[in-house]
Design a protein that fits this description.
With about 270 residues, the protein is α/β, with parallel strands linked by helices. About 30% of the residues lie in helices and about 25% in strands. The protein has helices at about 5-20, 90-95, 95-105, 165-175, 195-205, 215-225, 250-260, 260-274, and strands spanning about 25-30, 40-50, 65-70, 75-80, 110-120, 130-135, 180-190, 210, 230-240. Strand 7 (about 180-190), helix 5 and strand 8 (about 210) form a beta-alpha-beta unit. The protein is globular, with a radius of gyration of 17 Å. The protein binds hypoxanthine. Hypoxanthine binds near residues 211, 213, 236, 247 and 252.
Length: about 270
């Protein structure tokens, strides 16, 4: 099923009613372990996904499932506390639905974060990575089906999905904060099973530094509708097969919790510079 432009508008109109004159400039999709930043938003207006026409619930652990509007570091933001994933049973169009709605509300920039497995053997769990590009080879695109020209063209360019100027901004924010920031390529896998060691070896040969189950669908849609994008990955674990131990969700959540101050500090540093 494809959503119509009128449906996106209906969702946006519902939110406009709630927001009065407020309009977000920056949309933030916060992945595993970072959702708490939504609770730090000043003058917060919170809207549960379940209330918004056509929004889906977020069922992944640690994903609260609400939009929080307000100010962070002086920026007018819309924070998605929890995202939708394809492995929850949603189509890619459903996964990225909120991005288009936030675009209609006026958001010009999308900041995305995720937790992922580290493919690059020179790096370690706990490292933060600035996403310079991604690979998404599997299943269909979130843009499959009738194109909605109100958002963007049929065949959108993807040469610079992750905005170069925002990457520079992130690097300088990290330097100022003394946070070491890797730069690398995120490779999307649909999950929910973690990758096999053979898939991780293939990912490395293809040029990936991280493997994860989110982000690429939202970024494709953001690029299509002309948003600037800044993406970060927290490498919560070495990807499958690198260490002689099984992966577990527990390990991922613990690593995310251990790095939350560093990660949220970097995001705040970036927001200040926007
Ligand atoms: N693979 C995919 N997704 C992930 C991983 C991983 O190793 N760690 C956290 N999210």
């Amino acid at each position: 099923m494809n959503y119509t432009f009128a449906q996106y508008q209906e969702s946006a109109d519902y939110l406009k009613e709630k927001l009065g004159s407020f309009r977000p400039k920056v949309a933030m999709v916060l992945g595993s372990g970072l959702g708490f930043m939504g609770d730090e938003v000043a003058n917060a207006i919170k809207v549960p996904y379940g209330e918004i026409p056509y929004f889906k619930a977020s069922t992944a652990p640690g994903h609260k499932g609400q939009l929080v509007f307000g100010q962070l570091e002086g920026q007018d933001v819309a924070v998605m506390q929890g995202r939708m994933h394809h492995y929850e049973g949603y189509s890619y169009e459903e996964v990225a639905y909120a991005v288009r709605v936030l675009r209609l509300l006026g958001a010009e920039t999308l900041i995305v974060t995720n937790a992922a497995g580290c493919v690059n053997k020179d790096w370690k769990a706990g490292d933060l990575m600035l996403i310079t590009d991604h690979m998404k080879f599997f299943l269909e695109s979130p843009l499959r089906g009738e194109n909605l020209p109100e958002f963007g063209p049929r065949f959108p360019d993807a040469s610079h999905l992750y905005t170069p100027a925002l990457q520079e901004l992130a690097v300088s924010a990290a330097e100022e904060l003394g946070i070491s920031l890797r730069k690398g390529v995120y490779m999307y896998f649909p999950g929910p099973q973690y990758e096999t060691p053979a898939e991780v070896r293939a990912a490395r040969i293809l040029g990936a530094d991280a493997v994860g189950m989110s982000t690429a669908p939202e970024v494709i849609v953001a690029g299509h509708c002309g948003m600037e994008v800044l993406g970060f990955t927290l490498l919560t674990n070495m990807a499958a097969g690198i260490l002689n131990q099984p992966l577990s969700e527990q390990e991922v959540l613990e690593a995310a919790a251990a790095c939350k101050d560093k990660f949220s500090g970097l995001l705040r540093g970036c927001l200040k510079k926007l």
